[in-house]
Amino acid sequence: MRRISFWIATFVLCWVAANWAHGAELRIPQNATAGQSLTIGAGAGGTLYLVGPGQVIKRKVQGGEDVQISGDELRNAGRWIAIVRGGGGDQSQVFWVRPGKAENVNFLARPSRVPVNKPGVISGVAFVFDKSQNLVIDPTKVNFSLSVGSAHAEHTATSSNGVAWVTSSSAPKAGAAQFVASLPDVQVRRVIEQVASDPCNLKMKVIQREKGKVTVETDPVRDCTGNAVPDGTIVTFTQTDSTGRSVVDARIKKGIARAQLPAESNARISVASGVVLGNEIRLGGGQ
Amino acid sequence: MGRILAIIFAIFTVALVAAGAIHKSSTATASTPEAAVQSLLADAKARDWQGAYSYVAKASNADLQNFQRDIQGRDASLRTYSSIDSFQTRVLRQNDDEGLVRTDVKYSTAVGPFYDTRDLRVVREGGNWKVVWPVQKEQTVPPQVIPVNYLRWDIIWRGANDDWGAQDVESPHVRILSMHPTERDNSVILMGEVVNEDTVPAFVSVGATLVGKNGQDLAEETSFDKTSHVLLPKEVSPYRVDFPGIKLADIKSARMKPDSMLVPASADPVIGVLHQRIEQDAKGHTVLRGELLNESGQTVNIPHVLATFYDNSGQVIWVSDGYVDRALQPQVPQPFAVDLRDELASQVHTYRVTVNQYSLNRQE
Known about the structure:
The structure holds two protein chains of two kinds.
Chain A lengths: L1 H23 L13 E4 L4 E7 L2 E7 L4 E4 L8 E8 L5 E7 L6 E7 L2 E3 L6 E8 L11 E8 L2 E8 L4 E6 L6 E9 L2 E10 L3 E2 L3 E7 L2 E6 L3 E2 L10 E8 L2 E8 L6 E5 L5 E6 L2 E7 L5
Parallel strand pairs in A: 8-14
Antiparallel strand pairs in A: 1-4, 2-3, 2-5, 5-6, 7-9, 9-12, 10-11, 10-13, 13-14, 15-18, 16-17, 17-21, 19-20, 19-22, 22-23
Chain B lengths: L1 H20 L11 H13 L3 H5 L10 H9 L10 E12 L3 E12 L2 E14 L2 E5 L19 E2 L20 E11 L2 E10 L5 E11 L4 E6 L7 E2 L4 E9 L6 E12 L2 E2 L4 E10 L5 E9 L7 E9 L5 E8 L10 E6 L10 E9 L6
């Protein structure tokens, strides 16, 4: 009987001691999330320090009280250390704060200007952040859409380590393409200017001959998918005749390029833009 | 003693003032045709226009103002930023009443030396030799309105308040079309053509690095003014990069570095290059001549001509350039000439001329 009483007394003593020790421990939830409030049991009390990435929080606490940290205070995700000093001894504990819900997206779209009808030339990279700009590393679905005029293409990519990306071909139609990356509550828009490619089927004709001058003019200059080549593009007219060679680097204006050259008999006039050659005209000998 | 000194100083001062006040008479004398030309050019070099004009024959039909403008330049042309550095004369022929003197005048200009060769006729006028100075008649443009409605490109760059993901405007895409190395005059020369493939204007600079046999960089140079720097969309420009004092045999490879920058620009002016032909100049050297025609409504102050010469396989075999020392008035043709190496003349199958321009009143 005495032995039984001894064991019972020992058990009760241990239970009370363990209970007292538990009450003096730091207690931190393991599912802390940035931007959400957090309750910490500070044990025997003293001064509580929370040291996180780029941030320190300090609180005076009484023994046995819980400490409330608001979501606005707990902004940064990452590795934190809770330290309690005073109140019968120093204690510390490491805990991790996870990023909050995906609420922001940063979107890099490249390039800002691209020729039409080129495969795989457009890239979009989205970085997913919570409202406190912590990179959200949980897989998150990001929707990418690229539209120019009535043409529209959409693609959903799941982020990996906070990054989602997509590559796309440029559309056959020139114009300012709207490239949008979106989360359910937020979207970011970039503009990809899709511009006409090299001229195609460059053709010219004589439109006037007078006073020793001949005026030549191209048909509307378009690329191979029918887009108008932008105004200001250089079109070179070259005339070769018995007096030598004459060259005018004309600029496309309102879709066509025009130049005045000396009117010489048996002259040969050719046209080119960049590395693209057009037709040739022989003056006096027909085309 | 003090009075004597005072008198001496007074006489000396009067003599100096008198010497300073003496001008050459309007009937300056020269004993030979060559002396007349040399005196004229010496006075012009000293910017003594009155003195220089005193050697100009009446047959020149040029007043002092036109004569001065002819040598000094006008309309902010390259000639206005130059001065006569030196000159050489040589009598080509001479008789009792007339002579022909070849003058090679070297001007110092803002872009380096500029050479002008003229055969000047010298005539005897009232016992003195006078130079018939061929004043270039500047054509004037009749009053008119020239509508210019070419587009210009302006740029809005990324702002300080944009988020870090916002893309900036893309640099223009340029491409080197060809590169041909050669060795001339103890220099390695890299030349070829570069094109702006983009739809926006580009400020282009072509740099090159020569790599030696041991893999080390030997030299680094840029094309400087041997290229057109502002290239409009689809514009092709020649480039030439010179490496003086390096031999082709010492080189393993060359790294080309075309840099491009987006710049605001105007599509105006259009300069036509007319009647180009390869000829021999007065000294028997091969030159490419032609005429520049400014098709815009504003004066182009300093034209710069770049000529590309190709062989029969289409390869660039030489790039030559030259500044025109007179401004391009609207719609008025202006002759130009650029050198072509004599030993290459027989290999030239075709050629192409492009024109740079520098204008004071144009904002780009």
